[in-house]
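Reminder: ligand-aware prediction takes two inputs, not one.
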Amino acid sequence: MHATVGIIGAGPAGLLLARLLHQAGIDSVVLEARDRAYVEQRQRAGILEQITVDALRASGAGERMDREGIVHHGIELRFDGRSHRVDFPALADGRNVMVYAQTEMVKDLIALQLAEGGPLLFEAEARGVSQDGDRVTVHYDRDGREQTLTCDWVVGCDGFHGVAKDAIPEDLRRDYERTYPYSWLGILADAPPVYDELIYAHSDRGFALASMRSATVSRLYLQVPNGTDPADWPDEKIWDELDRRFALAEDPAWKLTRGPITAKSVLPMRSHVTEPMRHGRVLLAGDAAHIVPPTGAKGLNLAAADVIVLARAFARYRQTGSTDLLDTYSKTCLERVWRAEHFSYFMTTTLHVAPEQSPFDTRLQLSQLARVAASRHAAAELAENYVGVRLDGPLG
Ligand code: RFL
Ligand code: PHB
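Here is what comes back for the chain with RFL:
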């Protein structure tokens, strides 16, 4: 099998790239290690920046998002027993975010790609990528035997544990990493969201986040120690702990609406960047090149930003034969990546309580949060980063 662009991984990055290439008249083949049901059910992100919303529309798969997605005009910060709202449009040039689950975005992209796109092969696991002159080959396992896909270009959209990044020789590759001394316990509950926007809470018991999937389904997170077993958190204990962490001094009766918990999992927190994001005819996009802790809601949006830049670079190459945008791909993306890395680190370390945290560190966190509440400049810095910074370059 041959493709102009071989794409490894059918997460948001790989699927969106395949659709954007299709719209630009460029053929691709997507190889995905898992089966369709697994990929469609994986619970992950929920917040889309404007560039992600626009890209989903441009891909042709934005119709259901436009019907069912919920526009959010701000977030609430809770700390020191009080609440403060960060108003996005007022602070960030009228911009907003959209709440639409990654699971739904992935379902929409898969349905469209299978209906009218190039091949999307499930249960096709890439083992490695080899380059020989202008030809790149993906070696993959499917139907119990090793097969090959030859390509002009290969894009590794195979997530943090993928194989594509091994195509960058060790002496040219740099990895930057930070791990955090806490994890998130995430639940889905058949309970109406507590508030019509997201609540990010700092408390002396640890961080908590109230998000949503629909008018009847809540997505809630609690900071827990690394290595936590979800089985140690029966449902009542989770609800009690959420109520304590979201507690408001001026409204002690304030409580979450409880409902059946339908999913429970623990996610570790890590920051990681692999540079450069291209070697020869192999390019990396999304979690394959960089991951962030989820506190800034940036992972999915960075994946979308990468493939938007990449789809434009391939379209230009097809139209003019120039590789200039492919040549600057890594540099262009890394500028946004490092901004998001910093913001995610800032949100994470400002809102979580580290295991050995001193009272001094807690005072610093509360002072920073109070500054966001008191200063338009400090709030605007948070709002601009949350809705997505504007940078010079193709994404504006
Ligand atoms: P994905 O979604 O990990 O998709 C990669 C795909 O590649 C496949 N794959 C392979 N296929 C073929 N051959 C191989 N050798 C392969 N190796 C892997 C995988 O099966 C998979 O289908 O990466 P992508 O497309 O770059 O998208 C990035 C986003 O998924 C990610 O940034 C966010 O979901 C991060 N993230 C979250 N972000 C948020 O903003 N809010 C969240 O609440 C949130 N929760 C999460 C998350 C990431 C998680 N991971 C990666 C562990 C929760 C989790 C558990
Ligand atoms: C989510 O809805 O899953 C979500 C929202 C915002 C975050 C992280 C996760 O920062």
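The first strand starts at residue 2 and ends at 8. The chain has a mean pLDDT of 96. We will return to this case in the review session.
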